[in-house]
Amino acid sequence: MNTLDIITLKEVYKKTNNEIISIIEKGIRPNLFEKDFENKKKFIYKRLKQSSNYSILTYWDEDYPEELKNIADPPVILYYIGNLDLFNTKKVSVVGTRKPSQYGKNMCADIVKVLEDYTIVSGMAYGIDSISHRNAKKTIAVLGTGIDVIFPKTNEDLYHKISKDGLILSEYMPGTPGMKHQFPYRNRIIAALSEKTIVVEAAKRSGSLITARYALEFGKDVLAVPGDVSRFNSYGTNFLIYNGAIPIISLEVLKEIFNINEMRMNIDNLPEKSKKIISLIKNGENTAEKISYFLNEDISTILTSLMELEIEGKIRQENGCYNLIF
Fold this sequence. Notes:
Blueprint: H1 3-11, H2 17-25, H3 37-49, E1 55-58, H4 66-69, E2 77-82, E3 91-95, H5 102-114, E4 119-122, H6 128-135, E5 138-142, H7 156-165, E6 167-170, H8 182-193, E7 196-199, H9 207-217, E8 221-224, H10 235-242, E9 246-247, H11 251-257, H12 260-268, H13 272-282, H14 288-295, H15 299-311, E10 315-318, E11 321-324
Parallel strand pairs: 3-4, 3-7, 4-5, 5-6, 7-8, 8-9
Antiparallel strand pairs: 1-2, 2-6, 10-11
Helix pairs in contact: 1-3, 5-6, 8-9, 14-15
């Protein structure tokens, strides 16, 4: 079964992600569902061709992120624009209200700058999401619309910046407008991709609390910024802390939680070549071939250096990709 078959099952026959996974794993042919399957597939193909500035990743592709395979409802189709190597970096989601206070704006920007070695995952909405993306060195935006639909429209410049320098994802077919139920649903992807979720400001019924709930369901840590109890947008974060979320009481505490001072000290003590390798790995250039290319060195020499960093406990290798572990 090819990618177009999968999209047709999803878009025309409204099969769920898990139903499609089951159909494919059982080897059921799509033409068993309807006699006019091929005609409907042609209709889907025409719709897909209306927009061309994107690529498609399926659940069965090698580059599909393992973090999503481990959740109960993994998206079988991901439309994307940008750098898939960001899947292989350390990721943290930063989310919050669409109407942050000045305190929330400042805290969000400061938190993201402290976490400069991480890829920041968020939803490209107004407010905290946008501030997170704009202040991040590496970022992934997960949309609640089709990959080619910019929402809100005022984030057009941000959309194009992330398209060029980061990664944009959507499980919705190109051209799909923003519907109310789609945004909470996509939050499971934000939470699943991230090792931790940080909520900066959130009202009582904020979508950010849905992201936090997904993170907890996936066994991930949730952090929250404490707020003034009299503020509308503090209720959600204070409620999370009351129920066990880790409070970010200062930026120094945030550094301690992420072992950031120790990480930077360990890097400072490394030889110059090792520092360059680690810098490349941080930026998603994390295969021996890419490191060899960027450093203009023979791959056998690079493999020796990578092995030394592995022995020292600085990096680990999985499926040919290297990640930092300190």
